[in-house]
Design goal:
Helix content is 33%, strand content 31%. It is α+β, with helices and mostly antiparallel strands. The chain has 2 domains: 145 residues, no CATH class; 211 residues, Sandwich (Immunoglobulin-like). The strands form 4 sheets. Strands 6-9-2-1-12-16-15 form a 7-stranded mixed sheet, with no helix packed on it. A 5-stranded antiparallel sheet has the order 10-11-17-13-14, with no helix packed on it. A 3-stranded antiparallel sheet has the order 3-8-7, with no helix packed on it. α3 runs parallel beside α5. The longest helix has 32 residues. This is DUF2207 domain-containing protein. InterPro entries: DUF2207. It comes from Actinomadura rubrobrunea. Pfam families: DUF2207.
Length: 375
């Protein structure tokens, strides 16, 4: 019974460690995805796979005939967005559309609030939001009612933290269409409105901010409209706006800890722990048989300490992971030196218990058989 109890104790200690490592594997930041979804990143090192404006070929079963966006810059630095999306569903219909908005790009955090939706064609337009990885998913529609044909949806929301402050100007880089649509966009227009004269504003269309320049039409000193035709799936329009320093109030950017925040100290501690485990295993196999045959207090105390160390190590991993999750949400996992220390402690504690059980199994055998195994 004591052996089973210790096994359960070790399992409770090791399980959180395994869960932490699995989360680390699943949540390692995908650089390519971050670069693709970055709203207006420079993208100079990426070439567009399909130039914007190229012939789309035959009419697709599903498409977006028109996509109109209005970006209104407020004096407090907020970005008010109004998107009018005309979506042409195929004959089978669907339950609505899903708009993906990045709320985290790399370690930069954006606050998206005030999400509203409506439909001028009478389609169900109740918005539902949920976070998935680094995106906020806005589902517009009704799960119990399918729509067909051409429908128009209006999505409105406000973004805080979209501007990046600089020494001489404040800059907005924004992926106006999202770059996640799996259907072609026939006609797209993005209108930028500012409380001051817009002198530096540009638009690039394609799969990155280094794509094709958009057509532009100035509507007075405070507004500019960009247009682009025949966008392929996953192509977008990247807007860059520079305003003079002090023209609006720009709050400092918010950042989340990186998913992988292990320093050389944490990695070295883990390596030393694993090296200690390997050395202990070799020593246990080479040690003479029979020294641990008596199950007295001297045998139980080290094993119990090993089980406790395994449990404490697993708890340290969970605490390190949960700290950022509690602060920034389920997808804000950050693996740091504390996790590495926890993994190392759990490994050493588990090794103590497992090596003890290994020695005990050998010493219970016949002396001749035990010596044969020991060699």
């Amino acid at each position: 019974m004591r052996g089973r109890g210790r096994a359960r104790t070790v399992a409770l200690g090791v399980l959180p460690t395994i869960v932490g490592l699995v989360l680390l594997t699943l949540l390692a930041p995908p650089c390519a995805a971050a670069a693709r979804s970055q709203p207006g990143g420079d993208g100079a090192d990426r070439a567009d796979a399909h130039p914007a404006g190229a012939d789309l070929g035959p009419e697709e079963f599903e498409s977006i005939p028109a996509y109109d966006v209005v970006l209104t810059i407020a004096t407090n630095g907020d970005l008010h967005v109004r998107e009018t999306i005309t979506y042409d569903f195929d004959a089978g219909g669907a339950h609505g559309i899903v708009r993906r908005l990045p709320y985290r790009i790399g370690d930069r955090l954006y606050e998206i609030r005030g999400v509203r939706a409506s439909s001028s064609t009478g389609a169900p337009a109740r918005p539902r939001t949920r976070r998935w990885w680094h995106d906020l998913l806005i589902s517009v529609g009704d799960e119990d009612r399918a729509v067909r044909g051409r429908q128009a949806y209006v999505i409105e929301y406000t973004v805080t933290g979209a501007f990046t402050p600089g020494d001489v100007h404040d800059e907005l880089n924004w992926d106006a269409l999202g770059g996640a649509w799996e259907v072609p966009i026939r006609e797209a227009a993005v209108r930028v409105e500012a409380p001051v004269v817009l002198r530096k504003a540009r638009c690039r269309a394609g799969t990155s901010a280094a794509g094709t320049p958009c057509l532009r039409d100035r509507d007075g000193p405070y507004a500019i409209e960009f247009t682009q035709s025949a966008l392929r799936p996953r192509e977008s329009m990247f807007i860059t706006v520079r305003l003079p320093k002090g023209a609006i109030t720009v709050p400092p950017p918010r950042h989340a800890p990186p998913h992988w925040a292990v320093t050389w100290a944490g990695a070295g501690l883990l390596a030393l722990s694993l090296a200690g485990v390997a050395a202990a295993a070799r020593g246990a196999r080479a040690a003479p048989i029979g020294l641990e045959a008596g199950p007295g207090r001297s045998q139980a105390v080290p094993v119990e300490r090993g089980a406790l160390l395994a449990v404490l190590g697993g708890a340290l991993v969970v605490a390190d992971v949960a700290d950022e999750v509690r602060a920034h949400g389920a997808w804000a996992v950050s693996i740091g030196d504390a996790s590495m220390a926890g993994v190392g402690a759990a490994a050493v504690g588990s090794a103590v218990v497992c090596l003890h059980r290994f020695r005990m199994r050998i010493t219970r055998r016949r002396p001749g058989e035990g010596n044969k195994v020991g060699r």
